[in-house]
Design brief:
The complex is a heterodimer of chains A (115) and B (115). By secondary structure, chain A is an all-beta fold. Chain A contains no helices and eleven strands. The chains are: A mainly beta (115), B mainly beta (115).
């Protein structure tokens, strides 16, 4: 059964720093990996999707990488801002018999950017 | 920008009562999903739905749960007889199709409180 783990569980850094959030998954047979942002009490906002054949994706100050062989993905945030404070979730879409539907989520990294 | 909407935002019900959570997926999307997040825990996949039938379901999605697309726009999750442990945030999501290149877009969630 696929397990997704995120380290660290929480991170607090001063504004302006570059930072890396880590995600690992136990089964490399994934279709894709999505990174989400969740603000307190709110829904999930999709940030980036990396297909299994891709190595990285970029959107603005965000860069996500994927290494299927080692079962790892990283989310790099450049020049962090207080507005980046949120919980960041990664989720893997697994192969199954007829396709793949349900995402398997990590527990998230709670990020605080200090002004 | 098109988005997934959910109603109500918060539902309080007594144990044993039936509840229906409603979602309007993005209009050109073909796949619909329900997830839940118990407070402090991971987001968990419940069920996916395509072409008016269940595509995939998790172990959580037992006989107490059902899904329906009653018309061309709404997608509902029914819990037949609620239990205290059903208290959670329920997220609806949709994707354009199924597979490695399709992001899942999430709604803001319905917080269900069972008393």
């Amino acid at each position: 059964k696929q397990e997704v783990t995120q380290i660290p569980a929480a991170l607090s850094v001063p504004e302006g720093e570059n930072l890396v959030l880590n995600c690992s998954f136990t089964d490399s047979a994934i279709y894709n990996l999505q990174w989400f942002r969740q603000d307190p009490g709110k829904g999930l906002t999709s940030l980036l999707l990396i297909q299994s054949s891709q190595r990285e994706q970029t959107s603005g100050r965000l860069n996500a990488s994927l290494d299927k062989s080692s079962g790892r993905s990283t989310l790099y945030i450049a020049a962090s801002q207080p507005g980046d404070s949120a919980t960041y979730l990664c989720a893997a879409l697994m192969y199954s018999g007829g396709g793949a539907d349900g995402l398997t989520f990590g527990k998230g990294t709670h990020l605080i950017i200090q002004p | 920008e098109p988005e997934v909407t959910q109603t109500p935002s918060h539902q309080v019900t007594q144990m044993g009562q039936e509840v229906i959570l409603r979602c309007v997926p993005i209009s050109n999307h073909l796949y619909f999903y329900w997830y839940r997040q118990i407070l402090g825990q991971k987001v968990e996949f419940l069920v996916s739905f395509y072409n008016n039938e269940i595509s995939e379901k998790s172990e959580i999605f037992d006989d107490q749960f059902s899904v329906e697309r009653p018309d061309g726009s709404n997608f509902t999750l029914k819990i037949r007889s609620t239990k205290l442990e059903d208290s959670a945030m329920y997220f609806c999501a949709s994707s354009e199709n199924r597979g490695f290149e399709y992001e899942q877009y999430f709604g803001p969630g319905t917080r269900l409180t069972v008393t």
